[in-house]
Amino acid sequence: MPIPALETPFKIGPVTVRNRLVLAPMSGVTDLPFRKLAMRYGAGLVVTEMVASRELVQNAAESWTRLKGADFRPHMVQLAGRDPHWMAQAARICEAEGADIIDINMGCPAKKVIGGYAGSALMREPDHALDIIEQVVKAVSVPVTVKMRLGWDTQSINAPALAGRAERAGAQMITVHGRTRMQFYEGRADWDAIGDVRAAISIPLIANGDVETVADAGEILRRSGADAVMIGRGCQGRPWHAGVLAGHPAPLQGEIAAIAEEHYAMMIDHYGAKTGIRHARKHLGWYLERFAPSMTADERVAVMTSNDPDFVSACLRRLLSGDRGRSATCQEAA
């Protein structure tokens, strides 16, 4: 099969995606501010953090915050849970709130999620997993997709079989992370094993795991036969990176400080000052690790512990600007 060009569009059911670079759903990372930036800088598709289905139906504030979309399309929402009833009910809410695509999480390896027998734990119960897929497909008119791993462990690789059954149940796209649950994020993702899923389905396949560069994206497509690439951790600290892999220009060093500062302000606006400052710190840490290699330990502590947005913004401008000679300390910059 020819390898598709990364910058070309593809379709998930009737929904057109503008290129073949998809930002992975990452809990605590791909909130609305991050997704807005990723789309602005050229990602083909972005996915919400996983939304807990029962909590959404029961009006939990955090679930509604995670569901929130913006003016960009498509709006793809990932749902998590193990009860088919709650998953179907939540899917109806998502569609009513403007979701264009609903993704079912059967890949998350986190202990908190599998402890409730959701996420990748569902791969140990394929019949139950299929019941969830069928109920969600019946509940909505928008495309339903499924994200999974290769299997629970190396002795139970069942992604090809589960993906084939998911397609027959009405799923319109499958995403596979090339590791088992028990691998978490250790070792290297097995891009060739994703190809076994390609052989089992005719709907679009997205390949995920250890993609950092354009060369990686091309190689994972070649080895898996997938239609598109999903990138997750490689975008931490650079929300523009999916767009860069799709052919958009990377920001210049002098622009990175402005993006980080805007990202920080967006998070405060989205969550409110107290929560936004706390949630933003992981992102600030990633920006600094990537783009402020000569930062001192004291400077990092100052940024990561301050509750003063003006001070933090001034530090970001100084540390990420590429011109450290302008000011000796963050305090002077502020």
UniProtKB/TrEMBL annotation:
InterPro entries membership: Aldolase_TIM, DUS-like_FMN-bd, DUS_fam, DusB-like, tRNA-dHydroUridine_Synthase_C, tRNA_hU_synthase_CS
Molecular-function GO term, any one: oxidoreductase activity
Catalytic reactions on record: a 5,6-dihydrouridine in tRNA + NADP(+) = a uridine in tRNA + NADPH + H(+); a 5,6-dihydrouridine in tRNA + NAD(+) = a uridine in tRNA + NADH + H(+)
Location of the DUS-like FMN-binding domain: 23-295
CDD domains reported in the protein's UniProt record: DUS_like_FMN
Keywords: Flavoprotein, FMN, NADP, Oxidoreductase, RNA-binding, tRNA processing, tRNA-binding
Family membership: Belongs to the dus family.
Protein name stated in the entry: tRNA-dihydrouridine synthase
